[in-house]
């Protein structure tokens, strides 16, 4: 069986360089590939195009790449928790493409499936649809959206095996599955890495065919983006 295990994040990110396009899993701070992001910061790669639901917070997640001005363009659905993102966008330092969450997910899934483009009603008649081809299906207008073309996907899973099979946990699944196999190289970091064949086939969410490299992450902070607690009585 093919062994896709990398001994460290350094090995897993070999080939990363300036001017690349990355897909990064996660929703808010839930299920983000913390180790991969921290390594990208350390590598100091520049002029990146990053596709992710959002841009983390000022001092964590993709916010760290923004702090060092490593991101040239951000393709996201929601960016309301990052003051530095807002500042760079309003000042014109950062190019931003905002798209509906469902469209973001489908552009990933289309790339994963080898589908170059698809029609969706989401965004028709708004700024999202400006300049895009449109067609009417069953009396409803749709716009043409293209699959992402990315160099690397960085995803986070709960468990994985050395063959690249992945299991996600709870809401940390979010955008991670559709980003697997949606780039030329998919790098998966996992909390628990097992020998190939150790996972129950009926519990696997993403088969190893969609993953090229896998490594065991460490020192996960798993921050809570918005913590709300009940007041003491």
Automatic annotation (TrEMBL):
<dbReference type="InterPro" id="IPR037171">
    <property type="entry name" value="NagB/RpiA_transferase-like"/>
</dbReference>
<protein>
    <submittedName>
        <fullName>3-oxoacid CoA-transferase, A subunit</fullName>
    </submittedName>
</protein>
<keyword id="KW-0808">Transferase</keyword>
<dbReference type="InterPro" id="IPR004163">
    <property type="entry name" value="CoA_transf_BS"/>
</dbReference>
<dbReference type="InterPro" id="IPR004165">
    <property type="entry name" value="CoA_trans_fam_I"/>
</dbReference>
<dbReference type="InterPro" id="IPR012792">
    <property type="entry name" value="3-oxoacid_CoA-transf_A"/>
</dbReference>
<dbReference type="GO" id="GO:0008260">
    <property type="term" value="F:succinyl-CoA:3-oxo-acid CoA-transferase activity"/>
</dbReference>
<dbReference type="Pfam" id="PF01144">
    <property type="entry name" value="CoA_trans"/>
</dbReference>
